[in-house]
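Please check these two lines:
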Amino acid sequence: MRALTIRGYGDNDALEFADLPDPRPGPDEVLIAVRAAGVNPLDVKTRAGALRRVRRYAFPLILGNEVSGVVAAVGSAVTGFAPGDEVYARLDKDRLGGFAEYVTVAAALVARKPATIGHDLAAAIPLAAQTAWQALTDSGPLGGGSTVLVHGGAGGVGTFAVQFGRHLGATVIATASARNAALVSDLGADLVIDYRTESFVERMRALGHEADLVLDTQGGAVLHRSFEVVRRGGTVVTIAGLPTPDAVRGQANAVVRALLAAVHLGNRRRARRAGARFGYLFQRPDGGHLRQFAELVDSGRLRPVIDRVVPFADAPQALAHVERGGGPGKTVLSVLTSAR
């Protein structure tokens, strides 16, 4: 099979296509003939080795965290899927491989893709949607009367977070550029703040808004100032930059955790002053969530947003585009492998 690999960490020069043996599913696994694969900032971080202190991979490493495709074969203990089923999945964090013609995935992480959309759109869902959902629900239920602030409302995670916030009954405030404001409003945001021309802190204060939950996708000063608008007892959760020690418990040694604690010392202090909780989210793959999302998509209550679809042969350019910041929604690779 054809696959996009790296033999060591680096920039895009580290990428190389390779012809590798087709994988075979283990007893509890599904072999997927990949039709499309989502491209994420996490793929860029993995290529660069940004998380190598908390997650170690063997080389050559096939990149790619999420796919949509057709079941080509199933393991001996798998009963929920059969060859020919159209499925999608967020791959196990310790076993990547989505940028390839075939990939094996634990059956528990796989779900039938939404029936009303094609593979390109389905491949844009698993990682970003699960990240957004877990960010909005892990710290407690949201509902009527709650307010959510989503930074980067037009991004891959942000487009889902806006929709999930609306689905859960919360008032949704999002930051986005003026050119993407209409999109974010259409997805369900009650208020869109142009981050290029407005201070979200000043705008929210002027309108008397406080957030029960802030989802930060930017890091830096945006994260720091988010503690100025969170309600006492609320939560600020980030997916940007380095993880907190709590997020890598059991995955990193004491030295690494101590370094991460030092990195986030200022954020911990800001959280204490604000009377709020603070955490870093490492998204957890969950096939049950994907089944739930498929129902929402097929009922018209959730829609993935795609920036562009790129041929598999141009995967390095797709990664470079995402590394530069991409566009609204997700970038997707069209792999179009034929099932066996």
In short: The radius of gyration is 20 Å. Residues 139-280 form a domain with the Rossmann fold fold (CATH 3.40.50.720). The mean pLDDT is 94. DSSP finds eleven helices and 16 strands in the chain.
